[in-house]
Design brief:
It is built from 9 helices and 7 strands. The chain has 204 residues and is α/β, with parallel strands linked by helices.
Length: 204
Amino acid sequence: MSSSSKLLDQGVDAFASLPGIGRKTALRLALHMLRQPKNDVQFFTESIKGMRNDTQFCKRCHNISETEICEICNNKKRSENKTICVVEDMRDIIAIENTQQYFGNYHVLGGHISPIDGIGPTDLNIDSLVQRVQDENIKEVIFALNSTMEGDTTSFYIFRRMMNLSVKTSSIARGIPIGDELEYADEITLGRSLLNRIPFDSSL
């Protein structure tokens, strides 16, 4: 698909590079941007540029942050709550926060163990999680990974890593359908799954 304008084609290519965006949708988006006031388009591009350049990963929990330590980790009340909820990525934190049922700390693994994709334990933020449990006197680790084979494998690996530590391990209740991803669960179901969590070894 090409137009009479190379600049328009470049814009379409840029939108089409985004996940889930086909060429036709990319063309609609590009034409939409052309119809907008230049100030609005500039604000849009500057927002994307600022997001990319000025965000980083929290050094404590690996969540996205604008500072070295994210707002959640900097919350004193949360720090006093000696609970860590382990998730695959920051989208899961947003989903859990929307339930307003959890007020502890988080740890973002950055994915799950998947040998077929070449992702092993050392590719994830697992060592730093174990270190946090030891250093921060954590009382409970909640596994809130996706209900998939890869998610369960990752939870079990971490569980084995922490078997010799004096920490309680639990898993969110299976209100989340097997094979579903956490971010797509409705807030009520996800909230109840957190409240009704079970000891991890009981879920094996």
